[in-house]
Every structure is written in C-alpha cells, then in structure tokens.
Amino acid sequence: MTEPLQQFDWKSSSYERPGDVWVCGKACDGMPCRLGPGADGECSVHSQCQPEQVGDRYRCTRSVLHGGKCADGPNPDGTCCQADESCQPRMSLLKRRKVAGAVCVSISLAICLITFSDSSPQTLLSPGAVTSAHAALEANCAACHVAGEAHSGLLSNAFLAHDSLADSEKCLHCHQDIGAAPLSPHSVDGNALTELTADAAANSNSSVVSRTLTAFIHSGPPDQTRSCATCHQEHHGRSFDLAKLSDQQCQTCHKAQFDDFAHGHPEFEHFPHATRPNIYFDHARHINAYFAANDLPSHIPDKKSLSACSTCHKPDAAGGMMLTVDFQHTCASCHESQIVDLPFPGVPFFAVTQVAEQPRTEPGEIPIYGHWPVTESSLREMPPLMSLLLRGGASGTSTLGITPELIWQCKQLLLKVRNVGETALTERLPEAHSLLHGPLAELGPLLVAVSTSWFPGLRDEMAAHMTNQPLPKSPDVATPEHQAMPPVRGWYISDADRTIRYRPVAHADPVLRRLLDYLVPLVGSETVPKELQELFTALANPSGSGEISRSGPLATGRCLSCHTTSTDDDGILRVNWNTKVPRDHVAFTSFRHEPHMQIEGANLCLTCHQILNDQQTPEFFRPEYFTRDDLGRWKPQPETSCPLSSGFDAIKQSHCASCHNESTASQTCLECHNYHVHSP
Amino acid sequence: MTNFVLRRIIGVVIVAVLTLLLLVATRTMESALLSPRTWLGWLLVVIVLFLASYRVRKQFSMLPLGSSAGWLQCHIYVGLLSLPVFLLHSGAQWPGGLIEVMTGLLFLIVFCTGVVGLILTRTIPPRLTDRGEEVIRERIPVFIRILREEAEAAVAGAKDEAPSEVLSELYLRRLHSFFQRPTNFFSHVIHSAKPRTGLLSALADTRRFLNTQDEQTMERLAECVRRKDDLDYQYTMQSLLKYWLFLHVPLTWAMIVFASCHVVTAMAYTSQ
C-alpha cells in the first residue's frame, strides 16, 4: 500500500490560510516556505543575514528561525555566504477575485459615466424600441420625457421631484384631439365621471366581494387624473399595440363587473334610441300599413323592393353609420305635395281683420277708424307678427277683431312703409331685425302693395286724422266675390280675405326654415311674446292647422312633423334639419354597420332592427317633443323623456352576443367601446 | 427520504409557489392599471442586495448573523426566485438601451454562473472522494513535487546501478513535464482518462526492453503517474469549485453598478 501524500499530524501539516491575500511564490513549485509572505506582500524568508563586524572579523547573525548560524560564516568582505532564497509572493485566488471585481466595477462605472454624459446619444438609455409611430422621436428623449431635457437633474427627477403627469403633458403637445380633459378617465370631466360612477355603483349587480376587491386594488377616486403611460406603455418594439387594453383592465375601474360580453354584460337601454333621431319616421307604420300592399315600387324611385333597407339607407364613407338618402330619393314621391299643400291657404302675416267693437254709424257716415276694407272672409284675429308690429313689440291680449286704435296704428305703419320702406318695420320691432330682413324681407314690398290697392286714400285720411280734421271719404275698393285662394307658392296677396300669406315653395323651404330657426330657440322662454309663440304654433304645431289656435290637419309645411329638435352643446334648442350625419366626435360606443352587412345568411338589417308592431308603437311615436304648459305656452320636451325610436325595438344585447362570444373571440370591450370619448 | 432531499423539495416548492403568487400579483396589478414592473424592479433590487449580502455575511463571520449554511440555502433559493422576478420585470423582452442590455445580460450571466456553481458544488465533492486521495488544493504542488522527486529517484536508479536508458529517455520525453505541475486540466474537466492511459501505455510499452529490475522501476514510475494523475484530477475539480466564483462574484458587483443606473434612469424617465 502506498503511503498517503497528505499528513495531518501537527508537525507535517501546516495550517493553510486560503483567505490570505498573498501566497508564497515558491508554492507552485511545491516548495513553499513555512512562514509565507507578510500581509504587505513581502517575502518573509531572509536566508541571508547582515554579518556583524566584531573587530576585524565578521560574525554570522542568522537567527535560528532562518536556519541558524552558517557553518562557513560570512565572506571575507563581510557579505553573507548564503544564496538569496527569497521569492516574489503571488496574489491568492481570493485577492485575484477581488481585483477582478474591482476591474469589473471600474469598467462598469466608466460605461455608465459615458452613457450619462450629455455628449452620448440618448438612445443608449432607451430601454427598447418605440412604436413605428413614434420612431422619429426615438433619438430625442426630451420629446416625451422631462428627464430627458438634462441629465444633470436625473437623481432629483428620479426620487425627489418626479411628476409623471409632466410627461403626459408632452404627449398632449401632439395628441390634441382627445378631448378637453384628456388625462381624466375616458377624457370625461371629473365631476361628470363621479356622477356617472355613482350611478353605475347604484345599479351595479356585481358581487360585494368583487367590488371590495376592486376597491382594494384600485383605491384611487374615479375622477383621478391618469398619466398617458398608465395604459400606453412605450418601448416595447416597433409593432407594439399601444392602444391595447384588456377587458380586465377596463373592469378594474368599472363597478359593474362581468365575465365577458356574452355573460353578464349589462342589457342595452333603448340602444340606439337613447337620443332623439334627427328625423321622426315611423318605420312600423310605413312598412306595415302604407307599404303593406307591396305597392312601394310604385312610390319609391328606382322601383326598389320594399324589403331593401338600402333603398333609403346607405353606409357612410367609413362604413360606420347608416345614413339616410336625401328627401328627393325617398320621401318626396309621397310627401312633397303635402309640404306645399296647395289646398291650405298658407300662414297669414298681415290681415285686414274684422273690427272688434263696431261703432254704430249712420249709412254713409264714415266710421271713426276711417276706411277699413274688411270682407266677409276677413280673419277675426290679427296674425301674430302684425299684432307685434302694431304694438311696437308689446304683447297684447287676445281679442276677436281689431280695435280702432290699432287700425290707426296699422294705417300709420302702412303709410310709413309706403314712404320709407321696410325700415319702418324694424323701427317698430327692432328685436326682430334678423327676421324682418331675413325670411320676411319680402313682407315690406307686399305691405306697400296692399297699402296702395286696399287703402287708396290712405295719405289724405292719415293727414286728416293727425290734424283732427273730418275724415275724407276714401275711394271705393272693390270687394271681391268669394274666391278660392290662388294656387301659388311662396308669398302672395289674398284679396278675398285681405291677407298677406306665405305658402311653402317646396321641401326645405328657406323662409319656413329660417323662421323656425328663429322661433324654436325662443320657445319655452318666459320673455317671449305670446305672439311669437302663436307664430310658432302656426308653423310648428304638429296638430295645428296653420290658423292660430285652431286645430286642423297639419302645420304649414309640416316641417316639425318629421324634423325633430335637439338641444345643442350650447344649450340652445335647434331644429334637426339634416338627417343623421357622420359623427364628428368619438363616442363611448362605436358600431360599424358595413362589416355586419357582409354576414351571409343573416336577414341583414332586420336581424337587429326589429320593427315593433302596432300595439307596441304608440308610446314611441307620439312626437311630443313640444308640450303646452298650463298657460298654453309651448315647452320643449327633454330628449330623454321623448327619445323616439322610429318604430324599432331597442337592440338587445343577446343579438350581438349570438356572434360576439367566446367562440369568435371577438367580445373584448374595445370591440365596441372607445376609451377616449371626445369631441374634436 | 433524506433530510437533504426533503429540504431541496421544500425549497423548490416554496420557490414555485412564490413564483405563482408573483405571476398572479403581476397580472392583477396590470389589470388594475398599476405598474407591476416598477414594484417587481424594486423587489429585484432587494433580492440582488440580499444575494450580494451573502458575501458580507462571510466577510464578517464573527457577527451573529445566522449560520453560513442557512445563508447559503437562502442564497440558493432566493437566487432561483430572482429569475422569474427578472422575467416578470422585463416582460420576457430583451431591452434595447446600453444600460438595460448590460443589466439584463449581467443578471443572466450571474444567474447562470450561480446555477453552474450550484451544480458544481453538488456534483464535484462526491467525485473527489471517489478518486484518489483527498488532499487540500493548496498542498497539491507540494505533493506533485514529492511525486516528481520519487519518480526521478526511481529513474536515476540505485547508487551502484546504471539507470535504464529506455526509462530515462521516456521520462525526459514524456514524464518530465508531466511531473512539473498540474496538467491535463480540460481532460479532467470532461473526465477523460486519455492522458493517463496514454502515459501508462507508454510505460507498459517499454516492458519488452526492460530487465526484471527495470521492470520494477517502471512499475514504480507507473504508480507515480497514477498518483500524479489523481492529484491533477483533485486539482482540476477543486479549481472548478473556486474558478466559477471568478465570474459569479465580480460580475455581481458590475451588475449592481448597472442596476443602480437602471433604477435611477427608470425612476427618472417613468411616465406612469
């Protein structure tokens, strides 16, 4: 058996110190000295001594530790006779590792300092490529980050004065089209969002556990501003989808939580009829009653089939909304004649009305109000505008017939119009300047005409009245036999009943349109004279007759029978003259019709838009967007209380879920909803 | 089941459970529009500092900071946990900037060297006991010298005998350099016996030229070769146990430097 190389007895086994910084330089040769190097890396072996001179001789001074005195003693010249056996100690493994660590740290620090120097390209700090849309900004950190403006304040930016919203402000320098409150959730004002959140929480059917967990995770108030990077996280590569948002992320804030669209999504409420459509159109009645005999081709241009919704509706350029084809290609064949309505006399604006209190006069005696050429057909009530003009804008009490005082006012007005033109009208009613110089601009010349034909001695009569002289006898004005209203469109003078009237020219009649544009915003105002309310009645009352306060078939032009009214962003009531127009804003819910129309086998439009039957329709179709209050004044109805559904049942969530479900994997929130809700 | 195996299973299970919890927490925070990467980054900072403090624990062994074995176990399993934390933090996406690239690269190198070290420290010790004499690495040069002297003495022969020319030539040609220092490092790393077999074959091939006495000398030489080769194996294996730290430890400090810059940069530039 071979002798073991390693001995562990105390004599032959020295204590190894691998933690020492230095090791003997001869260790690698297998001949390390027992002392080993010192802590400073100096060899401890001193084989040579420094001989001591004693008289003329030299004496060895080597210690016992280094081998004791040599037998030969020092050389004659006083040097030691022993060879120098010291070594060059080497660094231990531990020391070498420390040196390697120091070198690595030094190199790392150097790289970091170079990277953070202002002369280095900023892309060295980029944690990853930005999306292709932002690629042009990649080399300029300061374009998106406040910290990128100067590296000198990096530490301060990191831990002391960091403001994440400051970076978002930089985003908004370019992205200016995401609403007035872009950093609020959904770009909705904080107060409005708080109200919406409260409503949603009240109606939430989420479990208590779910809501508690949500509140725990997401403790911020609903109106808290969020930085853009909360959702849009950059530096994830050129093709990264910055707008991607998971359903779970949506539901973090939303109180009504559910598994997916097919399971638990809240049922639609009157969608898409939550807001009033621009055109009131009873689809059910038209399809079920008017077109039931399948005679639509005889009415509709191009002779299209009844079932083709595309006869009247076309998608917009983006394929999102279904727009309505213009009037001439849809409704005109049936309804244009109703708009002109030739059998209807038209709206009176001036009339020689019956006298209210006819004073007793002897035959041949001139009445106190002078010549007043009434006929048997003359109106008993003054037209509203005439009443306002005669009273100088002041509202008067409704009486049957005209008083003598107002007759003289009327004659004075006619004379002044004859003398100075229509400025006489605006002098009496300056607040209606836009009306009198706009849609009623032709009224002045017509008044001049009737002042001549119906009041031939007006100038002399007025002069006598003003000087309290006896009234002269006016030339006779022929009283026409009973005759029908002339079948003319637009302004005309009716000698039969001594009126100046207006009858619509065609669809989109400019006079009626401008009159309604003037009147509709005033409706409901407490300060509006009742005469203007009455004029509105004549033009707008869906159940009116064109005659003041008289029920009849329809109002003049029947504009508001189809065109609804809505309150605009400024809170002013406007008539919706246009049909549905492409949205100019991003709404919370979006729907693109065109892709859905490509589905094979579906009954296309009627799959989702289910027409209500007659028993279901009345609640929806009464156009009660104006009602009278206790004083008989017209009041606009808010849209929410009179939404109008155009004869369709509200779309049910189950319709959509039949396709948008787990199997099609197309039921994410962003399929139908936009995050940033905003106007341009 | 031994305590060691049980401990290893428990440790791995704990790491797996913590990884799962971190994954769930990350997904939950992402859903909540919070910033899990920021929190994971800070968690990673804490983990790295904890792992690096193992060195401090060894430096100040006089302080009552717990047993080194306990620290090592924590170092191993927390180190394993650091990889999923790193992947969750980075989103398993390779960064683009120099600072981030260096931080990520160094982290992965340090992690991999740590795993390599773990494997080495778990596989080499049993092999060391299986082959040759267990010796202290620092003493191996001494033992090599002893074997060298023994081999040279054998080749030189007795005082009154002439040395075998065949063995002398073989020693000078093949064995002299072999006995000078530890050799065949990479062959031992891959556990190749080729160098050893080659030398022993060369010695055996001289048998036909040797007389009985020289044959005994050749056998002594062969024994010296075997023992020297075993020493080389011990040297190689023990060196591996030390050399992996030359990557693991220095690169850890470099990683901490880059990670510090990354933290400052990320916190300054975060827009969330």
Short summary:
The complex is a heterodimer of chains A (680) and B (272). Chain A has 680 residues and is mostly helical. Among the domains of chain A are: 120-267 and 653-680, no CATH class; 337-553, no CATH class.
Q: Looking across the biggest beta sheet of chain A, what order are the strands in?
A: 7-9-8
User: What characterizes the major β-sheet of chain A?
Assistant: 3 strands, antiparallel
Share of residues in strands of chain B:
under 5%
Largest sheet of chain B: none
Beta strand count of chain A: 13
Helix and strand content put the structural class of chain B at mainly alpha
- Point out poorly predicted stretches of chain A: 549-554, 617-622
Give the total of domains of chain B: 2
Poorly predicted sequence stretches spanning 5 or more consecutive residues of chain B = none
Shape of chain A: elongated
Radius of gyration based on Cα positions of chain B: 27 Å
Describe the model.
The complex is a heterodimer of chains A (680) and B (272). With 680 residues, chain A is mostly helical. Chain A contains 23 helices and 13 strands. Among the domains of chain A are: 176 residues, no CATH class; 217 residues, no CATH class. Chain A has a three-stranded antiparallel beta sheet. Chain A has a two-stranded antiparallel sheet with strand order 1-4. A two-stranded antiparallel sheet of chain A has the order 2-3. In chain A, a hairpin with a 5-residue loop joins strand 12 and strand 13. The longest helix of chain A is centred in the first third of the chain and has 24 residues. Chain A is elongated, with a radius of gyration of 49 Å. Chain B folds into two domains: 154 residues, no CATH class; 102 residues, no CATH class. Chain B is 79% helix and 0% strand. In chain B, helix 3 runs antiparallel to helix 4. Chain B is elongated and about 90 Å long. At the A-B interface, helix 1, helix 2, helix 3 and helix 6 of A face helix 1, helix 4, helix 5 and helix 9 of B.
